[in-house]
Amino acid sequence: MQSNVKHTPLEYQTEHNQMSILGFWIFLAAEVVLFSTLFATYAVLFGRTANAPLPSELFGIEIVLIMTVLLLTSSFTCGIAIHQMRHGSNSGLITWLIITLVLGLGFLGFEIYEFIHYSHEGATLSSSAFWSSFYVLAGTHGLHVTLGIGWAILLIIQLYKKGITAVTSRKVFIISLYWHFLDVIWIFIFTSVYLIGMVI
Amino acid sequence: MSLDEFFVTGEPLIYAGMVAIVLVTSAIIFLLTYFKKWGWLWREWLTTVDHKKIGIMYILSALAMLFRGGADALMMRVQLAFPDLNFLNTQHYNEIFTTHGTVMIIFMAMPFLIGLMNIVVPLQIGARDFAFPYVNALSFWSFFFGALLFNISFVIGGSPDAGWTSYTPLAGAAMSPGPGQNFYLLGLQLSGIGTLATGINLMVTILKMRAPGMKLFQMPIFTWSTLVTSFIIIFAFPILTVALALMTIDRIFGSQFFTLTGEGLPMMWANLFWMWGHPEVYIVILPAFGIFSEVIATFAKKQLFGYKAMVWSMILIAALSFLVWVHHFFTMGAGAFVNSVFSVSTMLIAVPTGVKIFNWLGTLYKSKIQFTTPMLWALAFIPSFVIGGVTGVMLGMAAADYQFHNSYFLVAHFHYVLIAGTVFACFAGLEYWYPKMFNHKLNEKFGKLSFWLFVIGFHVTFFPQYFLGLDGMPRRIFDIGPEWFTLNFISTIGAFGMGLGFAVFVFNIYYSYRTSQRETTGDSWDGRTLEWATPTPVPHYNFATQPTIRGLDAFVEMKKHNESTFDESKLEPIHMPNNTGQPFIMMALLFMSSFALVFEWMTLAILFLVGVIVMMVVRSFDEDEGHHVEVEEIKTTERQLRGL
Predict the structure, then answer these.
(1) Iron among the record's keywords (chain B) (predicted)?
(2) Which of A30, B46, B60, B76 is most exposed, with minimal Cβ within 10 Å?
């Protein structure tokens, strides 16, 4: 029994924590459905640009590639943060979480810049069905990132005050699931929205 | 905006509604103040996280909504009783059929069933609460405030009038300006959050909190139906969330998803809506199947026939429910091939459903049936639902559907499945579990009277509508031609029979409260499942000691071995969550924010949204770990309840 507890990560040691983590996995399943619906909407409305510019006229590889690198790296640093947590290093955990957040903020900054740029070129939320679906799909992801950043700041404060406990470790583990999930969604946006949009 | 734009004016019926609202509200405020019950209301109900109390609040709200939706229905039936009647004008009629449908599905059927799940499921699996009691309270208040938001539309701002399906482009900003449609979108969005959270909550509860030894295939069938329903909720509700959000963004922020300009696609709304909407009808029918299975097994005094087939047929129905949505709009012109595919998948659903019908009959076969009121509802359900199901298969044939589409044949069909299925089950379930909730049974005499009035009224109302449909009467018309008079008149008489049945049912609640004998054992019906192993009223921790489960119908086994859920040698302190006012406050703020968004008052909406975020931060820093019920307290409570 003793060795068993040793090998079970802290966040899994209470029954309540196990239920919370399972509940969050199920929530992520619902999120997959949510984003699938948005992707499907985007696919159906693809090409319906009306008088607005075509995506191939506006999408550029540079900024989107920078955004992708930022977010993918942030997923990696988030993994390191969990690794630090498993080793019991609170300062390491906080440091890597902050690095993750800075990368996330960089991603958001570029996304906002990009949205402003497109709208100056005449592609806004209301200019056509295609652009509506683009902004809502990418925007929903961006909103998720924003919420994740706010949420992580709350957790960093709690870690700073209380250190790594059963409760804080569970919370950090759950937000790490969320963060990786957003990364996965972004990979789909990068490929099926931007890369395909650039060539068609 | 001037005041006469804010309030709905110029309709005598709505003025009457306003007066009624003011009177009822003042009466409630007066009574609470007079009997000094405000503190009680806050401590015992508004802040509770107890699944049993939350369930009762769900059911009370659902009964209120059944009254509201029923009043809508009776007004429509009066208008349709005679040709050229001017009881309602066209606009008012449109609003009423819209709110009738929405209220009955979203704010009556679902919360009623979720209320029963709240009360029964933890008891059936031997758990002490939900996996996430705080989230459960949040879910309830999100439903409550969503329903409130939708319902106030009829006195403030004006009701939505584009049908409960809200098809675009009619429901878009260009053709339905004003706040009405926004009430629909935001009311449903608000309550949808709660439904999704409940789905997750119930799934984790059932997967992780079953009593020791209870395998999945030993769970009571109602719990199984809840698990399958949760699965559907989790995979269907996000689609509704997106659909509603897209239309809201269309209407308020000017996007072009479902518009006729900007190359929008109005038909995509119909697809998204029914990709949620068809699974939704199984969300309200599978728990009903579960309730009937419990009731039939109990009063046939036998183990449910074909338990495993019952479970697998539910799983199959759940899977198929995601693959049939196009049958709601065969006439949209998706082409012969697409229509054929969806026609076949639709008719396939009849197979597992048929399996269930035969299993119920198999359970009844050669049994000594006890004709209690819940059992009567279950017995009436079988033939009535078969009529609804068979006409459903007729509608599922794409070629024939071109004739039936949007006619009263369809109206009759879905009322036959939703009333004979869901509403009968709500009554059966409420009467069956009533003693567990309130410590006394409902009076059988009045129960049977309300049953007969309602069931006969139901058939008189809806059976003629099949023939009206075949005669060519379309749905959603406010004026009938003289050739449709006789059957419509009969239908209206039936509707009042149902109304009378409901009135008797409500009276029976009061009458039984005054006169019924109080329960002594907790096992009111010689039950088969664990909820009957608890004493009544159920102590807030449910089970003093969790029983070990060896097979199906756990309580039958326990009674054989003379075991109970109170084993003094095994008592331990029980961990329970504390009450909290946070869910109520958080959802009240979200309600205010949504209300402001309905009228597109952006600053106010953002202000209240910030309030919601502040409440979330408060929750994040909340260190409330709950409390322990001590062994001595459990001993005293159990001895008193069990008369030891």
Answers:
(1) yes
(2) B60
